[in-house]
Design brief:
The chain is of the alpha+beta class. The chain has a single domain, classed as VC0467-like, CATH 3.40.1740.10. Strands 1, 2, 3, 4, 5, 6, 7, 8, 9 and 10 form a ten-stranded mixed sheet that branches. A hairpin with a 2-residue loop joins strand 2 and strand 3. Helix 5 packs antiparallel against helix 6. The longest helix is centred in the last third of the chain and has 10 residues. It is globular, with a radius of gyration of 17 Å. The N and C termini lie far apart (34 Å).
């Protein structure tokens, strides 16, 4: 099975509805880097039961949830945000979405309330693919690729993101988006 799906940084990958991989089941991934050596992205819709201040007690008080970014390097903290114009060192990865930036400056901006919880998403770990691996997964139709909309990240309930992103891919995908997560055959 082959496909000529063009993969590029800044798009989303939406897990097909019956993916069994527990890390990626019903996930929406923002692809932040894609080149001949591999790909890097962050799962946008998987929360973990931890606050930022539980993870980093010395961080300025900030009522932010922490998300599961992926199974690679889960001892790292990453962040996506919409304040790249004020956070030095940020890298734009999609329209309206930046990655990283100067961590000391981030803490200052948060302590001054110039960055609010709706501006940023913190993630533990990331999703990574070796050279050619993502293209192979796409050829097996493990993922549906789509355009990133900053509203997915900053204005959508994470529990609804997969359904919304899948449904936004067109009529056939809207039907797929309504497939329940757990089908009871009784």
């Amino acid at each position: 099975m082959t496909t000529n799906t063009l993969i590029k940084s800044g798009q989303i990958l939406i897990a097909e509805p019956f993916m069994l991989d527990p890390f990626f089941r019903r996930s929406v991934v923002l692809l932040c880097e894609h080149h001949e050596h591999g790909s890097l992205g962050f799962i946008l819709n998987k929360t973990i039961n931890m606050s930022l201040n539980e993870l980093l007690p010395d961080f300025p008080y900030f009522e932010a949830e922490v998300f599961y970014g992926g199974p690679v390097q889960t001892d790292t903290l990453n962040y996506l945000h919409n304040v790249g114009d004020i956070l030095e060192g940020s890298i734009q990865v999609a329209r309206g979405v930046w990655m990283g930036g100067n961590f000391d400056e981030l803490q200052f901006l948060i302590s001054q309330q110039l960055i609010q919880t709706h501006n940023i998403r913190f993630m533990v770990g990331y999703a990574g693919w070796s050279a050619g691996q993502l293209q192979e997964e796409l050829s097996y139709r493990s993922w549906v690729s789509g355009e990133m909309d900053p509203n997915y990240l900053f204005n959508t309930n994470p529990a609804e993101m997969w359904r919304l992103a899948m449904g936004n891919q067109g009529n056939a995908y809207a039907v797929i988006a309504d497939i329940p997560d757990a089908i009871n055959w009784n």
